[in-house]
């Protein structure tokens, strides 16, 4: 069996996964307060660095020619920048919120 | 891939993918409440880590040099980007990091094209086309967004006469390349033209939008990058890419709609508002 051509069963399963994930993405986000829009954007940006998985396969797989490995290397680098940078920035944003919330509580205590 | 070739390490990989997918979903859920947002982010980090470890163990990886070099170089640059940025410059750094992620999706697409284009079936070839187009236009689109926020590219909407027609023509040329490539997978010139036009189209999509609307645009580009990752998942037959990419694609789209609502604007107004203002100027 050739892994590069979808068998109908696998294709249908993949489309199911796609449709359910799309529905979930919509459901999970639909009630987020405006305060969290920017950190959420930043976090989903980091999650879109999941193409790192594809890059890893390209960079290290058996029997791939050298140009593919080099493309894979560049892709691994850029995807890692996306993941590490994205989560780092999100973390700093959320820390800022935390400080702000703590400050607000202090104000109330006074 | 048939079941006879499934080794224990591949079952392990699929298990980590399932865990990663669940963590991503929980993470998005928690990210939408202020109290749990930070914990949610850690779950997403855990999910990413699980997926990477699973791939390294079960993904038939044989050459480690490129991977270790890429992971370390990327981590250093990424960490530097996150730590060095002043609070006021956060949005442009997000856009920049996003451009890198989308570039990775496009590069993986080119790699797939180089390695086994003649063996890909029609569905996978179509997915590859989507991956290339979405990855490439998101890369340049995010770069322009970052440039606008940083002030390198003028932040005001850049417009010219006949912009609408030029954009439509570019989109049509891109679609033409896509279909030609779909039916003639060995036409590498058409494939690379499609890549080039998509890079150009990303620029053209974002330049007519003012920098005040950039967060909405970035969220939308984020959604494109997610869909590019999902397309990669279809090409490689990889479920975690499909799930995380699609989650990202649709939550990014909904988020950009929500952002518009919070600003009391409609999404068409933000995306095509530039065209509207040309008409308004003409009627003055």
UniProtKB/TrEMBL annotation, chain A:
Return the Pfam families for the record. Answer: PNTB_4TM
Membrane topology classification: Multi-pass membrane protein
Q: Which residues form a coiled coil?
A: none
Keyword check for Membrane, yes or no: yes
Q: Where are the transmembrane segments?
A: 6-26, 70-90
In its UniProt record, which GO terms are filed under biological process? NADPH regeneration
Write down the superkingdom of origin. Answer: Bacteria
Q: Name one GO cellular component term.
A: plasma membrane
Q: Where is the NAD(P) transhydrogenase alpha subunit C-terminal domain?
A: 15-98
Localization annotation: Cell inner membrane
Q: Can you state which reaction this protein catalyses?
A: NAD(+) + NADPH + H(+)(in) = NADH + NADP(+) + H(+)(out)
Q: What is this protein called?
A: proton-translocating NAD(P)(+) transhydrogenase
Q: Which organism is it from?
A: Occallatibacter riparius
Q: What is the lineage of its organism?
A: Bacteria, Pseudomonadati, Acidobacteriota, Terriglobia, Terriglobales
């Amino acid at each position: 069996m050739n892994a590069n051509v979808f068998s109908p069963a696998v294709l249908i399963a993949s489309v199911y996964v796609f449709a359910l994930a799309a529905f979930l993405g919509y459901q999970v986000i639909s009630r987020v307060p405006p305060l969290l829009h920017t950190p959420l954007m930043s976090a989903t940006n980091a999650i879109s660095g999941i193409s790192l998985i594809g890059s890893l396969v390209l960079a290290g797989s058996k029997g791939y020619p050298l140009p593919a490995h080099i493309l894979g290397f560049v892709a691994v680098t850029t995807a890692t920048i996306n993941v590490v940078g994205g989560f780092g920035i999100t973390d700093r944003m959320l820390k800022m919120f935390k400080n702000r919330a703590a400050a607000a509580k202090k104000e109330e205590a006074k | 891939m048939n079941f006879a070739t499934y080794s224990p390490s591949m079952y392990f990989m699929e298990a980590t993918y399932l865990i990663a997918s669940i963590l991503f979903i929980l993470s998005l859920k928690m990210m939408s409440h202020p109290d749990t947002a930070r914990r949610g982010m850690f779950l997403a980090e855990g999910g990413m880590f699980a997926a990477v470890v699973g791939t390294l163990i079960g993904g038939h990886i044989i050459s480690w040099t490129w991977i270790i070099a890429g992971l370390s170089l990327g981590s250093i640059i990424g960490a530097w980007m996150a730590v060095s940025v002043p609070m006021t410059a956060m949005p442009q750094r997000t856009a920049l990091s996003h451009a890198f992620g989308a570039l990775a999706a496009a590069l993986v697409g080119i790699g797939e094209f180089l390695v086994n284009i003649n063996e890909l079936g029609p569905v996978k070839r179509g997915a590859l086309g989507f991956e290339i187009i979405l990855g490439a236009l998101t890369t340049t689109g995010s770069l322009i967004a970052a440039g606008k926020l940083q002030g390198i590219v003028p932040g005001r909407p850049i417009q010219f006469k006949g912009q609408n027609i030029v954009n439509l023509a570019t989109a049509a040329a891109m679609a033409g390349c896509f279909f030609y490539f779909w039916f003639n997978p060995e036409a590498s010139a058409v494939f690379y033209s499609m890549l080039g036009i998509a890079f150009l189209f990303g620029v053209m999509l974002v330049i007519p939008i003012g920098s005040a609307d950039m967060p909405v645009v970035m969220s939308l580009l984020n959604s494109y990058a997610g869909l590019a990752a999902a397309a990669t998942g279809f090409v490689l037959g990889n479920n975690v890419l499909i799930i995380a990419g699609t989650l990202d694609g649709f939550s990014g789209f909904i988020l950009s709609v929500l952002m518009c609502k919070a600003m009391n604007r409609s999404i068409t107004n933000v995306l095509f508002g530039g065209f509207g203002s040309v008409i308004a100027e003409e009627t003055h």
